Amino acid sequence: MQDPAITPELIIAHGINDTEYSEILKILLREPTFTELGIFSAMWNEHCSYKSSKLHLKKLPTTGPQVICGPGENAGIVDIGDGQALVFKMESHNHPSYIEPYQGAATGVGGILRDVFTMGARPVAAMNSLSFGDKDHPKTRQLVHGVVEGIGGYGNAFGVPTVGGELRFHPAYNGNCLVNAFAAGLADVDGIFYSAASGVGRPVVYLGAKTGRDGVGGATMASAEFDETIEEKRPTVQVGDPFTEKRLMEATLELMQTGAVVSIQDMGAAGLTCSAVEMGDKGGLGIRLDLERVPQREANMTAYEMMLSESQERMLMVLDPAHEDAARAVFDKWDLDFAIVGETIAEDRFLIVLNGEVKADLPLSTLASSAPEYDRPWIPTPQATPMQDLPQVDPIDALRILLESPNYSARNWVFDQYDSMVMADTVKGPGHSAGLIRVHGTQKHLAFTSDVTPRYVRANPVEGGKQAVAEAYRNLCAQGARPLASTDNLNFGNPEKPEIMGQFVGALDGIGQACIALDMPIVSGNVSLYNETDGQPILPTPTIGAVGLIDAEGTAILGHASEGDMAVLIGETKGHLGQSALAYEVFNREDGDAPTVDLQAEALHGQFIRNNSEWISACTDLSDGGLALAAFEMAAAAGVGVQLDSENTPELFGEDQARYLIACSFDTAEYLMTAASQAGVPIACVGRFSGKTVRMGRSEALLAELSAQHAGALANHFA
Amino acid sequence: MKAAVLVFPGSNCDRDLAVALREAGCDVEMVWHKQTELPSGVDMVGVPGGFSFGDYLRCGAIAARSPIVKALRSHVDRGGYAIGICNGFQVLTESGMLPGALLRNAGLKYICKSVPLHVATSDSVFTCGYESGSQITVPIAHHDGNYTAAPDTLAQLVAEDRVAFTYGDNPNGSDKDIAGVLSQNRRVLGMMPHPERASDSAHGGTDGARLFANLITELSVA
User: Fold this and answer.
1) What does the DSSP assignment read for A213-241?
2) Which residues of A touch B53 (CB under 8 A)?
3) pTM recorded for the entire structure
4) Which value does ipTM take for this structure?
C-alpha cells in the first residue's frame, strides 16, 4: 500500500502546528515519511510530551529519604521498610471514557496496573477518582453506568481490590467526564525493574497480546478539545482484555525471576513508538525494529498502524540472550506471544523496517528529547470576592439535602460493583476516609486515598492545590497512618488559554508547598489538559492520590463510635462557608473564596492524631459538609446516634481545614484534652455519640431515617 | 490433611483459598490447569474463585474442560472431597459435578459485599461446625451468582437436604435463595460466597474460618 503524501492537511490532522513541523524539518533535513510523521505526532502530543506542563512540574518536590524512584519511570516507588517497596501511580483516561465509557474506563485501569507490574510489583490496591456532569444531564447516566462497569469489569477480573476513590457531579463536567485511575503494587526493593535499555545487540522482545488497529492515534485524540465530531473518534478508543492482562502480569513477574529481563517497559499511549524510544533514550542506545515480526491480530497492517496502535496488554523488553529459553518457556506456559522484534544498536537511530523496507529512520535521542516545551502565557486567577451571607437554615434540613445529594450520599451503589476484598488483605474498603490493606504476611498496613475539591481550586488555585494535599494527608492520618508520598493527576482545560494556564500554575504552586510542608513528595503523576468541550472547561481538578504506612509498631484506627463516646473536635473552627458543600447543594451557590490552609497546623494536628492513635476508637477528617456531615457519617457507620451542642450554621457546616472528629471514651477525652493543650493543638468536646437520633442544638431526626436516605439516594437516581 | 488448590489462567482467589486452608492447618499444593493428575495423597480439592479463562463463553465453561478437571472428576467419582467457591462453583456446575447453573445476577450488576447467610444443613463435613438454621456473615463478589435449576432438581435438592447455604436477603435472584449446594454423596460443596474472605479477624469477621476448621478436623479424623 502506498503511503499518503505529506500535505499541510495531513500535518494538521496529526496535531502538529507550523512551528513544530519546521522543527521536524530542521531535525531531519528532509521531509518526514508518513510513518515518521505519525511517530512525531505520537511523541510530541501533549499527553506524551507534557509540553505545556513540564516547565511547571519541575517545581514539585519529588525527593525524600522514603523515595526510591521519583517521576519519569512507569510509576513512583517508596520504601516501606523490611526490604519492601510500594510502587504506585495515578493516571487519567478522561477522553476515551467520555467517548466509549466502558472500554475507556476499563483500559484506564488496565494501563495503570501495567505501569505498576512492569516495575516488578504485584498490584495490591486500586482506586479511582470520577467526575461526572450534572446528575440530570442526559449523558450522565450512561457515562456513570459505563465507567463504573468498565472499572469493575477490568479490576475485578484482574483481581486487584478497589479500596477507595471519589465520585463527584458538577455541570462543568457535562461534556468532559474525568476518570483517574490509581494502582499500587508491592515489590522487593532488590527486585525492581526499570526501562533503560543496556547492552548493544541485545534482542528487543515483544510480550503479551497481539497488535491490532485499535487505538491508532489515541494519544493525539486525548490531547485535543472535543466538539460535535466526537462520535467519529470512537475507533481511537482501545478495547481491554483483563484476562490477557492477568496472564501478562503473572508471566511478567515470573519472567523477572528468571534473570532474563534487562529492561522492560509497558506499551501504553502511543504503543510501540513510545516504549521503544523511551527504552533506547534512557539507555543511550538506538533501537531497530523489524515490524513483520510483530505479532499481529489483523492482516496487512502498515508500519504506521503498528507504530501507533494502542492495543492493550503489551510489553516491550530487552532480553539477556543467555536466558532466552527460560523466558520463552514462561510465556508458553501462559499462552502469550513472545517475539523477538528487533535489537538494541550502538548508533543513535530509531530504525523501523518492514519486510526489508525502511519506513522510519530517526535520530532516537533527538526524538525523545526534542519535544517542544512551552512556557505558555498565564494570568493569575483573580482574588475571589468574599461570600455574601447565607440565609438561615435548619441544620437537620440542610443535612438531609446533603445526604440525598449525588455528591454526598452513600457511595455503595458504585463501590459494591467493585471487588474490594480479593487478595483477602483488605481491612477497610472504599467508603472510608482511606482504604486500608494489610501488607500480605506482615503486621504492616498501607492506607490509600485520593482527594481534591475542584470548587476550591477554581476559586483559589493556590489554596485549592494545598487543600487537595492537606485533605489526603488528613485522610491518611485519620487511619493512624504516616503519610509517605503522593501521585498527582492534573486535569485542566485548554492550556493555550492564559486563565486556564493560570489555574494550572497556581494549583501546582499550592500542591508543591503542601507536599513540602507535609513531607509527601510527588513520585509519579500524569497531566490531562484540553478537558474542554465547545470551549467550556472543566473545573480545575488536580487529583492527589496518596499513600500512608502503619508499620508493625503502629496502631491502625479501626473502630467505630460506641454509645456514650465523646465527640471531640481537633482543630480550629472559624466557620468558613465560601465554596462549601452547604452553599452549593443547599443554596446552589458557588461564591466566596476557598478556605485557607494552614500547613503548619495540618502537620501538627496530623501528628497529634498519629501519636494518639491507640487511644482513639474512631476518627475522620472534616472536609466537605464540615462537622455536621462528618458527625453523621461517623454515627451512621456505628449505628449510634449523635448529639451535637451547636445549632450554628457556620460551626456545623463550615469547611475550615486541619480538623478531625474523634470518637472516644470520656476518660480518653480528658487525656486527649491535656495532651492537646500541651502540644498546642486546639481541641473541643462538641457533643456525644448516643441514642437513636442525630441532634444539632434543638433540631433532631432519627438516625435510621437519615441513614436510609443517605444509603438509598445514589441507587434511587442511577439504578 | 492435604488439599490441592487448582489454578486456571484467570483464577484470582487461589492464593486466598490456600492461605485460609493453611491457616486452618492443612497442607496445600497449588495445581496448574494443564496438569493431568492430582498430587498423590490429596484428600480435598479446592476450586478457587476468579475469572478462569476470562469467564469467556460462560463462567467456568472452559475451565470445566481443562485436563486437571478430568482428574478432579476421577477424584470425586472415587468419593473424594471438593469445594468450589464462586468461579469454582461455576466450574463444578459446568462440569456436571453439581446440579444447576449460575446465571447473571438479577440486577445485572456485579455485587461485592458482606451478606447474611443461613446454614441450611449441618450434615456435611463443610457445615457440621455450624448449627443448622444459624445465620453467618460471609462476603459475596460475583456477576453471575444467580443459581437456577430445573424444578424437579430443586425439589430433589431440598428433599435430600442438599442445600448448604441460603441467602438471608437474596442479592442475585437465586432460586430458593440458594447460595450453596452439596453433591449427592455430600462430599462436594459449591458456594458463591467467599468463606476465605471471612477467615481472619482483619477481615472484620471469621464466620468463614469455621468452615475450613471443621472441614480439616473432620477429614483429619477420617
Assistant:
1) STTTTHHHHTTS-B-TTGGGGGGGS----
2) 243
3) 0.96
4) 0.97
